Amino acid sequence: MNLVSKVLQQAVDEFAQLPGVGHKTAFRFVLHLLKKKPEELKKFGNTFIQLQEQVRYCKECFNITHLDMCDICSNPSRDRTTICVVEDIRDVVSIENTEQFKGMYHVLGGIISPLDGVGPSDLNIQALLDRLQSGEVKELIFALSTTMEGDTTNFYLFRQVKPFDVNVSTLARGVSIGGGLEYTDELTLGRSLVNRVPYENTLAG
Fold this sequence. Notes:
205 residues; alpha/beta; Helicase, Ruva Protein, domain 3; Dna Topoisomerase Vi A Subunit, Chain: A, domain 2; 2 domains; 5-stranded mixed beta sheet; 7 helices; 39% helix; elongated
């Protein structure tokens, strides 16, 4: 898309970098913003500057927060003996929306994917093992996507946590094979979490 204004073109190109946003949609976004009052546009821009400056990762679980520790990790009513291992922040939001889980989380920051150049050292795996050192954790729930990469990551984690006295479970297969948690409806996800099964049972055969 070639526009008459370089500034307009630059704004459209920036929006077009967002996932799922083509140049036509980006163009509509920019035209909409141009109709806003200067103070509204400034507020819009400052919001994203604050996002970059203030948002950080929780020092314990790597969830997104604006403090050193996220609201979940700092909540004394959460069950600290259970950790749900997820790929990213979207999965935390999806599980929290089910209102079926009251434990803690550990955000890996991705899954093992050799084709994408992502190995175990690129993920927050060592931090998870460090959390198990205290002996406080009694159960790990693997809640990764049901893809080949997700299953590979599950198996790698399972081998890494074997030396620890911790039960390992995974979501019941109510979650469709090949899908991510963010695309699973809350009822199905909630049931899959409640009806989780020992991870070893999924290795049979």
